[in-house]
From TrEMBL:
It holds the Pfam family Acyl_transf_3. InterPro entries: Acyl_transf_3_dom, Nod_factor_acetyltransferase. Residues 44-340 form the Acyltransferase domain. The keyword Transmembrane applies. Keywords: Membrane, Transmembrane, Transmembrane helix. Residues 1-38, 368-394 are annotated as: Disordered. The chain crosses the membrane at residues 73-94, 106-125, 137-155, 167-185, 220-239, 259-284, 291-312, 324-345. GO terms for molecular function: acyltransferase activity, transferring groups other than amino-acyl groups. The keyword Transmembrane applies. Residues 383-394 have a biased composition (Pro residues). This is Fucose 4-O-acetylase.
Length: 394
């Protein structure tokens, strides 16, 4: 199935769809002849789609956690790896980002502008859904799902710095660990999440294609199944013994009523756990093109739009119906969430909202000279992947 509508996922938000090095569309030579672009890598589009489904399902499970230990265990497992997976892949496809005018323009139009639009939209919507008509608009305090765009803007903007450092990942881990010791960071731009999720983005920047090929080996794929099975057992055991809010990366150790030294220890432990689960997830993702491969290019749409459905459903208190807390009810909720977010990734929805998610805004920027355009073409930015979201409710 060939997707004809250009679109982006949460990590593909800094401009028109581009492709990894060696897969970009070639500029037309003087004679007007064009070279065809190589197809997108189905592995990453498949991974993005499956991850965005898990995002929506995780949000749908939130009201059911208190009634079921099994649901809480599944919820914990999903939050242990789905957001790190998005961020790692986003980092991997951000390796070509620099501070050139063209890429700064795409960063603004693809990340900053959607952030402002949806921050305002969610503020007005939650005035109704949360019953808070006096909620004010604050671009410094990301609301619900918009935190990811704020974080992605900062990560992307600092990419050249991480690409320059000799040991970027250890530095990022130290920063994340220090963030868990600093409750005074506050809510501005959700810096706790930005800093604590930073190592995953930096890890993605450090990866090469051969690393993804490594986890696609048959023996790794066979090992991935018992890894997830074991992780689910551990998650079930940990429900009554551990605060799963550590996986949200949005609080300090003090905020979680834990000793300060827990913060750095949990930073390293969770990073190791999440990285293993991401590797197992990638190992199990289909490499071939499937019916949902094209949907992977629209995960930003599914990510930002599904929040309105979640908020509206919570406004009508669907979870107060006891049937939804039965096994069949939980399965039904899961299926509905998966179907809704799938529909929001489709071409018709993306066509309707494209002006919001992918504004051109040529009027707002200086026109590049031919020399700048050629330089931009020589250093194409790789297509990053989203959305998605750790615990977004507030």
């Amino acid at each position: 199935m060939k997707e004809t509508l250009p679109s982006r996922s949460p990590g593909e938000t800094d401009g028109p769809p581009t492709r990894p090095r060696g897969e970009e569309t070639r500029a037309a030579p003087a004679g007007g002849e064009t070279r065809s672009a190589k197809p997108r890598d189905a592995l990453f589009d498949n991974a993005k789609y499956l991850a965005i489904v898990l995002v929506a399902v995780g949000h749908a499970w939130e009201p059911l956690r208190g009634e079921s230990r099994a649901v809480t265990a599944l919820y914990t497992l999903v939050y242990a790896f789905h957001m790190p997976a998005f961020i790692i892949i986003s980092g991997y496809f951000s390796r070509g980002f620099d501070w050139s005018p063209g890429k700064i323009k795409r960063l603004i139009t693809g990340v900053a502008v959607p952030y402002i639009v949806f921050e305002v939209a969610y503020t007005f919507f939650t005035r109704w859904s949360d019953g808070k008509p006096d909620r004010s608009i604050s671009l410094l305090d990301p609301l619900y799902l918009t935190w990811f765009l704020a974080a992605l803007f900062i990560w992307r903007l600092t990419t050249p710095i991480w690409r320059t450092l000799r040991w970027p990942l250890p530095v990022a881990l130290v920063i994340a660990a220090l963030a868990t010791l600093t409750p005074s960071i506050g809510k501005d731009l959700d810096l706790h999440r930005t800093l604590q999720f930073l190592p995953y983005f930096v890890l993605g920047l450090s990866l090469k294609k051969k690393h993804f090929e490594l986890v696609r080996r048959r023996e790794v794929r066979l090992l991935a199944v018992p890894v997830f099975a074991g992780a689910l057992i551990v998650a079930y055991w940990a429900v009554t013994r551990m605060n799963y809010a550590w996986f949200f990366h949005k609080s300090s150790a003090e905020d979680l009523a834990a000793p300060a030294w827990y913060g750095p220890v949990m930073t390293l432990a969770i990073f190791g756990c999440s990285t293993v689960l991401v590797a197992a997830f990638v190992a199990l993702v289909p490499r071939r093109r499937t019916w949902f491969t094209a949907l992977g290019a629209g995960t930003l749409y599914g990510y930002l739009l599904h929040g309105f459905f979640i908020q509206a459903a919570n406004h009508w208190h669907w979870s107060r119906n006891d049937w939804f807390h039965t096994p069949l009810g939980t399965v039904t909720v899961t299926a509905i969430a998966a179907v809704v977010v799938t529909g929001l990734c489709t071409a018709p929805v993306r066509r309707i909202f494209r002006a919001v998610f992918e504004p051109k805004m040529d009027w707002a920027f200086r026109r590049q000279t031919p020399a700048q355009g050629r330089e931009q073409a020589r250093t194409p930015e790789e297509t990053p992947v989203p959305a998605p979201a750790p615990h977004g409710s507030r």
